[in-house]
Amino acid sequence: MTTITTLTKFIIDQQHEIPDASGDLTRILNDIGIASKFVHREVNKAGLADILGLEGTENVQGEQQKKLDVYANDQFISALKAGGQCAAIASEENEEVIILDNSISNKAKYVVAIDPLDGSSNIEVNVSIGTVFSIYKRKSEIGKPADESDLLQPGTDIVAAGYVIYGSSTMLVYTTGHGVNGFTLDPSVGLFILSHPNIRYPETGNIYSVNESNHIYFQESIKAYIQFCHEDDSNTGRPYITRYIGSMVADVHRNLLLGGIFLYPGTIKKPNGKLRLLYECKPMAYIAEQAGGKASDGSRRILEIHPDSIHQRSPFYMGPTKMVEKIEEFIRFF
Ligand code: AHG
Ligand code: MN
Ligand code: MN
Known about the structure:
The protein has eight helices and 13 strands. The chain has helices spanning 7-14, 24-44, 49-52, 68-83, 220-230, 248-258, 277-290, 321-333; strands at 86-91, 98-99, 110-118, 129-137, 158-166, 170-175, 180-186, 191-199, 207-209, 241-242, 260-264, 293-296, 316-320. Strands 2-1-3-4-5-6-7-8 form an eight-stranded mixed β-sheet, sandwiched between helices. A hairpin with a 6-residue loop joins strand 1 (86-91) and strand 2. It is globular. The protein starts with 6 loop residues before the first helix and ends with a helix. It binds 2,5-anhydro-1,6-di-O-phosphono-D-glucitol and manganese (II) ion (2 copies). Residues 92, 115, 118-120, 211, 246-248, 274 line the site of 2,5-anhydro-1,6-di-O-phosphono-D-glucitol (AHG).
């Protein structure tokens, strides 16, 4: 019989690799895993909303049914609140940092940044969506309420980050700084099972993922790089293949496994692009580096950027090191 490793077992086994581990981080990761199963369940019945009268109608408790991204947000927040190991949360869905100001959470060592549902425009058309999370040690005094500055740390201070992809199967991929591992949900038993141990980017790849409808608004350097992707050169596997889902988690996941660059550049209209530094770029950058790849804003390492505000945006380039270095070269020389 094959031995299976569940997410819970794996997290506990890895605890000794985390400095001063007391089990708190283990519990947060576990809570995120549990909340994601509830989101998985709702995502999987999203298409039945009209038939079952889910969205916009009242449920049996007489509560209004919520949109999926709000549902996901509530689910992760309540799991982190109930767990007691998290002192504050920054979420895409909340303007301000949520300070979990109670006697238990004030003693917590960690804070969490989350995009509860990424790729929400894809929900209605049955295309993969995701969750992105990252965990930091708070800087403020333990025992008191946390504050916004606890979330405004550079990505180099991340202690764990990951994503969940709700795709043809649901997967949780995470790292605590000791490599990247992927777990696939077996819905029949409700367990995440280690299916992708030690994920590494291929050394290079032949996929590029960008929303090319923004082409006319890109800087000349980005236009030239896209031109490079289109050129014929059998030595470097060009022309590259275009793949763009419009769910960052799904685009990044495919490129991580198959080898490809994901880019969301700034445009003339929006110099910082669209993606949010704190809860989209930084966690993915941490995963990229842990998988042997690279993530940059075109010239700076994403993990070294000190955020000024929780919803700030950044241009984003992520992929195998060689592919990201190539686009940086274009940006530098233009
Ligand atoms: P979210 O649904 O969390 O707001 O994020 C959507 C993001 C990201 O998932 C994706 O890569 C990007 O938006 C797609 O943007 P475009 O439609 O501009 O390509
Ligand atoms: Mn998002
Ligand atoms: Mn979102």
